[in-house]
Write the structure tokens for this entry.
Amino acid sequence: MTETGNPSQPTNVHDYTGNHIQVIEGHEAIRKRPGMYIGSTGERGLHQLVYEVVLYAVDEHLAGHADTIDVTITADGGVRVTDNGRGVPVGKGESAGKSVLERQLTEPSFGSRPHTGYRVSGGLSGVGLCVVNVLSSRLTVEVHRDGHRWTQEYEKGTPVTALTRNEETGEHSTTVAFWPDADVFETTLYSFATLSERLRELALLNEGLAISLTDERPAQPVRHHHKGDLRAYITHLNPDLPSFVHSPAIAFASENQDKTILVQVAMQWSTQAPGMIRSFANSTRTHEGGTHEHRFRTALTDIVNEHARRQNLISPDDEDITAEAVQRGLTAVISVKLAHPVFEGATRTRLGNPEAATYVQAVVREHLADWLDNHPDEAAAITRHILGTST
């Protein structure tokens, strides 16, 4: 490469060496290419910062140690997230001189989080608190655990104060407050409606978890909380529809023997609803689907055809009922929670785990086939609806 870099001049391939390769690591990589970690630098990425912190708290709930998450949009444009879990550990970890809390906030890690021992980790990229810290002009953390209140402050991912032990307390909680960096994001204005919808979704996906959202700018606070299975999510997606083919919705859940994959499904057919299938992996919406959603659709079509033939509703010589016919008017939610999610695609919202596909297919085949056999009237109504729309 010539010194002037003029593209019209020839390049000497022998002058191109390893010294010309720019390796970007750690915080520099996150700030230089934020879209790789949170999807974009627009509104979607801005809101993803909130979801990453909230999902960290959701992981604490899944570990059995938190049932409340409070989210606040502060008057000065920041966001504060508090959970009533154990509190992020403040003791020294494997890195000399650095607490576990500081490692969580400064060291990118992918897949399951080694510092916490969580079986399930949410978020798009797995970097969680670190990416939020690096992409924030300022971040503060407050932890109640080990008999004291602990605090620390950061700027653009770098600690500006030491981890400080404050007054004694018997409480347990973690509070993370952050202010997105205006030099990174196209906008730093949060949408109350967007956050509220996503937090409602997380509450519906995680039984027994209460999530509140307060806007100090100001607005009316909301609180999302439900007890039970994913049927509540179906009700949310299809409210007040008088044309259900069957009621209540079908719902089932199963966890594999190793407790590394949990599958939850809820589904309901309607003669008027347009139909939709929403899939999630570790509480993250998989907009592009993936292995879990694909195998759900495949298993669903197979089971409906098998049931229809067993009931002599279609003859052995008839063509199979199409997937399009089976899914018309169907609203379904598929949620998988697994130890090592692999997200693929340009937006990292397509699940790639083959083991998730295998287990989802097995669970759907077992539980849905059993439900149809044990609810003959509802099964007949569903099959009539499907055959009536089949072409």
Remarks:
- The longest helix spans residues 354-374.
- Confidence is low (pLDDT under 50) at residues 1-11, 16-24, 110-118.
- Residues 70 and 212 are 5 Å apart (CA to CA).
